[in-house]
Amino acid sequence: MTEKRSVLLVAHTGRPGAVRSAQLVLDRLTEAGISARVLDSEAEDLRCAGVDVTPVCGAAAEGAEMVIVLGGDGTLLRAAELARPSGTPVLGVNLGHVGFLAEAERADLAATVDKVASRAYDVEERMTVDVIVRENGDVTQSGWALNEASVEKASRQRMLEVIAEIDGRPLSRWGCDGVVCATPTGSTAYAFSAGGPVVWPEVEALLVVPISAHALFARPMVVSPRSVVALELLPNTSGGVLWCDGRRQIEVPPGARIEVRRGERPVRLARLHQTPFTDRLVTKFGLPVAGWRGRVRD
């Protein structure tokens, strides 16, 4: 009995060329005998006839071999929300600007789909973070993130007053705009903009990066992946906002406690190329490497 293969297509329909790219993907998948499904929120914009339509929910990628994403990193993060529950690999095709999480560019779209059809790809797991909010000791909210969980001030006029804790021990008190708790994958995103270090994806660690902190000690920190990072909002501070990947928002009142730890479920990314992360950095950030001669041969 022939295995029935299926792919979920997620697209940033507002991107120029997204509809044309989606149609190309669907045509080549059909030629390869692979069925496709699209989200009900995108079906009308994509104008793709003869494909299954699925609701936007945690089961959207259930049974799919892969989620192909057409867009930038924001679109891939949205797709990761749908793929994580079922462990379905996500493959990004960059239609945006930097597209750090993407594996392919629009110019390589046809070849990318052909590699998916021939199963010429590998899958790697990326660490996530799980987050809970406690009020008076009780868990009131929870969330997760692939890139980062950031606690930020809710009022522009007032700083956020927080005490950072690592593994049950107080570290420092900061008056700041916020604190970013990032994964290695997220080290090139918000944490990078806030002055944090770039961490290679295969390194397992948690990053803690204060944002515009008024404190003598407010350096970015890299802690164990087994650590639990807690941020306590002082009772007399203004309220804050917890953002997960800049997409999902949780209001955090004064006196609340936010705990960040390694996520129980990773996000799986499909890889077509064995490109070293160093090369990805150079390409995406346009880093100057002219004059490099490499190791002197023996």
UniProtKB/TrEMBL annotation:
Q: Which SUPFAM superfamilies match?
A: NAD kinase/diacylglycerol kinase-like (SSF111331)
Q: Which cofactor does it need?
A: a divalent metal cation
Keywords associated with the record? ATP-binding, Cytoplasm, Kinase, NAD, NADP, Nucleotide-binding, Transferase
Q: Where in the cell is it found?
A: Cytoplasm
Q: Which reaction does it catalyse?
A: NAD(+) + ATP = ADP + NADP(+) + H(+)
Q: Which InterPro entries match?
A: ATP-NAD_kinase_N, ATP-NAD_kinase_PpnK-typ_C, NAD/diacylglycerol_kinase_sf, NADK
Q: Which domain of life is it from?
A: Bacteria
Q: Which residues form the active site?
A: 73
Q: What class of enzyme is it?
A: transferase
Q: Can you provide one Gene Ontology molecular function annotated for this UniProt record?
A: metal ion binding
Cellular component per GO, a single term: cytoplasm
What is the recorded function of this protein according to its Swiss-Prot or TrEMBL entry?
A: Involved in the regulation of the intracellular balance of NAD and NADP, and is a key enzyme in the biosynthesis of NADP. Catalyzes specifically the phosphorylation on 2'-hydroxyl of the adenosine moiety of NAD to yield NADP.
Kindly give the NCBIfam families that the UniProt entry links to this protein.
PRK03372.1
Task: Tell me the protein family, please.
Answer: Belongs to the NAD kinase family.
Record's protein name: NAD kinase
Which species is listed as the source? Answer: Actinoallomurus iriomotensis
